[in-house]
Amino acid sequence: MVNFLIFGPPGSGKGTQSVKLAQKFNLVHLSTGDMLRAEIAGGTELGKKMSSIMAKGELVPDEVVIEMIAAKIDSAKNTAGFLFDGFPRTVEQTKELEKMLGKRKMKIDMMLVLDVDHDELVKRLISRAELSGRPDDKDPSVIENRISVYRSKTEPIINYCQEKGLYQPVNGVGSIDDIFERLSDKIKHFA
Ligand code: AP5
Ligand code: MG
User: Which ligand is closest in space to the CA of residue 14?
Assistant: First the structure.
């Protein structure tokens, strides 16, 4: 099994690229953002509790997403590995993921970081606001907050993974197909 983190700020293309990569390399795509939105759509108690945090662009508590991910890892079958999208989001979540994988004789094999400048991120998310129905895309100040939470709480994971030799930056600006090729080139050495 090979396990990849697809990493980058909001709007960098994690979700878009994950769907294509998962299909090409037979990976299970695990997006904590999608899982949380499914809880909200399903009207669950957890969804009700998390929706106001997400609407502000803040992070939900570490233990909520860790529990979600653990359940998904154990239920996956016949896969070449996992592609983690939007998780981990804090160094604490990263350490928990390492423990979780370690118990199952796995590890994080590579961190793919999509590099996209601030103006392009904002442009993408504002144009998605029309279509996505995501409350966190609708308000430009929430978009800015998501980016700033990424810089302060999530980006430190890059250093943590760089020290372990896992860091692989990828230019995230260009056509979706070109970026897919760049990512595929990195993954194909493993999968
Ligand atoms: P999450 O769902 O992870 O959202 P995010 O990080 O804000 O990122 P996005 O999904 O908006 O962007 P993306 O990088 O996936 O880009 P996409 O491919 O969609 O998290 C949402 C919230 O949930 C968080 O704020 C938090 O509250 C909570 N949460 C989730 N996980 C958590 C965790 N682990 N811990 C704590 N809280 C957590 O692309 C964006 C747009 O750009 C699309 O319209 C797309 O079509 C377009 N696009 C993509 N590629 C290109 C391109 N190359 N050129 C032009 N446009 C492009
Ligand atoms: Mg996403």
Answer: 1
| Sequence spans of domains, the chain | 2-180
pLDDT in tens, 50-77: 999 999 999 999 999 999 999 999 898 8
Query: What span, in angstroms and rounded, lies between the C-alpha atoms of 51 and 48?
Result: 6
Using the mean position of ligand 2's atoms as its centre, give its distance from the Cα of residue 33 in Å: 6
Is there an atom of ligand 1 within 6 Å of 21 CB? no
Give this prediction's pTM. Answer: 0.97
Cα–Cα dist 173/97, whole Å: 29
Protein residue closest via CA to atom 1 of ligand 1: 33
User: Using an 8 Å Cβ cutoff, are 55 and 145 in contact?
Assistant: no
The CATH number assigned to the domain with range 2-180 reads 3.40.50.300
- Ligand 1 pocket, residue 128 CB under 6 Å: yes
